[in-house]
């Protein structure tokens, strides 16, 4: 059973130990009290923190073409034009993909969120998850709920917002008619339990640099006994290892002598096994040369996409490196998948966005 700590919107202007909060008793009774007293009530229990929607913004990506989970950096760049601040100043929590193949994201100021977590830690509150109130509403139906004196819009709506009664009256004519409205003061006295157990898929903001660290292992107190056994095992293993090392060096010296007699031209030996395999396989090398592999990549992968090639380099041991310019990260992802479909081991790296174009380096690795 979750223990909720709700930091109400009343304390956003001056976050401190007196922040007005709400906790719920085991019977579901709502208790309003300042943060420092709530910390005493919680008594070190794991807490699921609930933030007001006024502290965050909710956005969605465009439909993502790949079924594979994209990197957080790619999703952040995908919504960069919708943000009013630079990505470095923001913290973005990513939710699961929806039915339209879009990824929902909850955005907040990084420094502000860090200060909030620091404040909770100073009060001795052990945070398990951090969610946002308007994001708790289940996705099945468009909902408008009056809770703690504000109206929360969410659920099946393509938005997560908090509005005052006056703001809602101004926006209501433009909202869909199918919204189901609930008012905690009039319609639904048990609305607290209904919201907290709505069964939605809210975004947990404890991601990336703010991910919760694992708790210490419960059996760490017995480590001293285990350490003693390990010392005895180590002493025996060390003696055995020294014997094996001496035998190994003797065998290696004999192998190196034999290799020099077979290939007198190989005066410098760096990796004996690799050099031996290379000399053995040199006669039977495949006719699929590096130039032929580049031609396949150009015809079957790059030629079928709308990207511009800026530069092509070949590095021994690394393969072909091609600097590309594309219109979007989605276009680069499609390029990488097309390469894998054609049996070419391609990877993308060093992706960056400049103006309206995306630059990246496509690597065709040695097979």
UniProtKB/TrEMBL annotation:
Gene3D superfamilies: 3.30.420.380, General secretion pathway protein M, EpsM
A GO cellular component annotation in the UniProt record: Gram-negative-bacterium-type cell wall
Top-rank taxon: Bacteria
Protein's membrane topology: Single-pass membrane protein
Location of the GspL cytoplasmic actin-ATPase-like domain: 31-170
GO biological process: protein secretion by the type II secretion system
Primary subcellular site in the record, as a coarse category: membrane
InterPro entries: ATPase_NBD (IPR043129), GspL_cyto_dom (IPR024230), GspL_pp_dom (IPR025691), T2SS_protein-GspL (IPR007812)
One protein family per Pfam: GspL_C
Xref: NCBIfam families: typeII_sec_gspL
Similarity comment: Belongs to the GSP L family.
Protein name: Type II secretion system protein L
Lineage, uppermost ranks: Bacteria, Pseudomonadati, Pseudomonadota, Gammaproteobacteria, Pseudomonadales
């Amino acid at each position: 059973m979750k223990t909720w700590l709700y930091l109400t919107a009343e304390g956003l202007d001056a976050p401190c130990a007196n922040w007005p909060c709400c906790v719920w008793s085991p019977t579901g009774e709502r208790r309003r009290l300042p943060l420092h007293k709530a910390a005493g009530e919680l008594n070190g229990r794991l807490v699921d923190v609930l933030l007001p929607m006024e502290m965050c913004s909710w956005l969605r990506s465009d439909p993502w073409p790949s079924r594979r989970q994209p990197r957080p950096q790619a999703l952040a760049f995908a919504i960069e034009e919708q943000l009013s601040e630079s990505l470095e100043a923001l913290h973005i929590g990513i939710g699961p993909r929806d039915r339209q193949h879009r990824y929902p994201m909850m955005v907040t100021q990084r420094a502000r969120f860090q200060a909030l977590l620091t404040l909770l830690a100073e009060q001795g509150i052990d945070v398990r998850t951090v969610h946002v109130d308007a994001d708790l509403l289940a996705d099945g139906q468009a909902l408008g709920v009056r809770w703690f004196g504000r109206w929360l819009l969410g659920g099946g709506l393509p938005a997560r917002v908090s509005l005052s009664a006056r703001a809602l009256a101004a926006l209501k004519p433009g909202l869909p008619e199918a919204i189901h409205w609930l008012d905690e003061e009039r319609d639904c006295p048990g609305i607290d339990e209904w919201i907290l157990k709505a069964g939605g898929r809210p975004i947990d903001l404890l991601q990336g640099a703010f991910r919760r660290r694992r708790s210490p292992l419960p059996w760490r107190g017995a480590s001293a006994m285990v350490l003693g056994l390990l010392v005895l095992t180590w002493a025996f293993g060390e003696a055995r290892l020294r014997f094996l090392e001496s035998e190994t060096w003797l065998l290696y010296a004999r192998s190196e002598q034999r290799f020099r007699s077979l290939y007198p031209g190989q005066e410098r030996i760096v990796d004996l096994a690799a050099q031996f395999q290379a000399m053995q396989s040199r006669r039977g090398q495949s006719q699929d040369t590096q130039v032929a592999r580049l031609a396949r990549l150009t015809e079957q992968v790059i030629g079928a996409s709308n990207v511009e090639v800026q530069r092509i380099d070949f590095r021994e041991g690394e393969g072909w490196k091609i600097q590309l310019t594309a219109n979007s990260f989605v276009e680069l992802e499609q390029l990488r998948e097309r390469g894998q479909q054609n049996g070419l081991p391609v990877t993308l790296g060093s992706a960056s966005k400049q103006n309206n174009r995306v630059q990246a380096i496509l690597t065709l690795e040695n097979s």
